[in-house]
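Many introductory courses stop at the sequence. We go one step further.
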Amino acid sequence: MQIKFLKSIVENLINKQSAEIIDLLAGKKDVNEFAMAKKLNLTINQTRNILYKLSDYGLVSFTRKKDKRKGWYIYFWTLDAYESLKLLEENLRKKLEKFEEQSKNRKENRYYVCNTCSIEVNEETALANNFICTECENVYELADNKEIITQIEKNINRIKKEIELVSSERIKEEEKVGDIKIKKAKRLERARIKEKAKLKLAMKKLLKKEQKKKAIEPKNKISKPKYKSKPKTSKSKKNKKKIIKDKTSKKKKTKKTNKKKTKKSK
């Protein structure tokens, strides 16, 4: 059932021939594009064009690997069933809205038809043309809306059933995606816990090593505080001080001799 729905979405988006690619992608991961081209009896460029169009809608994803022997890149494709069913459901809901609008218009308004030309017009157009066909000039007749409404109602019921089926398939895929995400999150959490435990062990080992080093090293003796000695004056400074002293002593001697001379003169 799911493959049928997936084929219908590809058929609507691209063409009927492209829908065959779903048989090769459904339920598989990383499918080689060259293998697909061979099975579809298409060239690699034709196959890639289909896949690129599906990729634009987010329905397929790819990974690429370099061929060591040939030197070019090979693409491996995976179908996103959830996104495909989601898009199909959206398209069906849009169709349903259109049919419901048509049904409402048919029930509320009157339509006229030219049996000769098989042309149908609404009441406004019929009034504007005085209920005469512009093509063959025959008189319009009132269209029987009952048959058209019953056909529209059948289409509405059919689409509603399809939406229910597609929705149930989408929910299944959503649950699968959710389970995968939960598993991935759990895996990452386990990896994080392991890394944390490794760091703790490494820290413990470092602490033990430091403690062993401290135990082996001898205790440092308490050293007495060294008092700072007065800074030694340089020889040049000492010489300067001596010269100043000599000059002051000479001045004193000259003063004494001058005093004695003055006394004698008196």
